[in-house]
Amino acid sequence: MVKEIDRAGIPVTHICTVVPISLTIGANRIVPAVGIPYPLGDPTLGEKKSYEIRENLVMRGLKALTVPVEEQTVFEEDI
């Protein structure tokens, strides 16, 4: 789905837990998430820390939308 939306001219960031799957489906902007059971946080770290993780991932995903890409790009670090 992300590939088709991107092809229609709407940039998409795929926040995912398994990067090789995103690469296989052809997502252009990929942001690795934390883990399969909790992709956007870690409840074992407490509510505040989990929120910080989630905020960082979403901000990284939004910033990735502003980066022009010619090929699949994994945004591992802050942009």
UniProtKB/TrEMBL annotation:
Superkingdom classification of source: Bacteria
Presence of the UniProt keyword Oxidoreductase in the record: yes
Keywords for the protein's UniProt record, in alphabetical order: Oxidoreductase, Selenocysteine
GO MF entries: oxidoreductase activity, acting on X-H and Y-H to form an X-Y bond, with a disulfide as acceptor
Protein's name in the database: Selenoprotein B, glycine/betaine/sarcosine/D-proline reductase family
Species in which this protein is naturally found: Hespellia stercorisuis DSM 15480
